[in-house]
Specification:
Oligomer: single chain
Largest sheet: 4 strands, antiparallel
Order of helices and strands: HHEEHEE
Number of domains: 2
Distance between the termini: 67 Å
Structural class: alpha+beta
Strand content: 15-25%
Length: 122
């Protein structure tokens, strides 16, 4: 067997399990995995924090859910924009929903503190 045939056998993985060449290939792969420094790959885990605030979910019947969302998480605007912002917050948690009711909760000074949204699954 020539050197070229041996290298081709490594490349095409033609050696049977348990042979010396097979063991060499597996050893080379394991060495590559465990010896290569992590900085070579520039791979870091992605931290995904879709919402910095807490969303409280309550059941409000058979197929209805009630969500309490902090006002700081919702984009201000008219009713349609508020509903769109609430859906963007709720749907990663519960999947596709249809908002049936939205209520604004204010403190004693009139400042909006949270939104309550009732939703059903289509």
């Amino acid at each position: 067997m020539t050197f070229g045939q041996t290298i081709a056998g490594y490349f095409w993985w033609t050696y049977p399990r348990g042979s010396v060449h097979y063991d060499v290939m597996v050893t080379l792969i394991l060495l590559f995995i465990f010896v290569t420094p992590s900085r070579v790959f520039h791979d870091k885990p992605v931290v995904r924090t879709p919402h910095q605030t807490e969303v409280v979910v309550d059941s409000d019947g058979a197929n209805r859910m009630r969500y309490r969302v902090a006002a700081s998480a919702v984009q201000p605007g008219d009713d349609a924009e508020i509903r769109q912002s609430l859906r963007a917050i709720i749907e990663p948690i519960s999947g596709e929903v249809e908002l049936t009711r939205v209520e604004i909760v204010r403190d004693k000074t009139g400042r909006i503190t949270e939104y309550r949204a009732w939703a059903t699954r289509p």
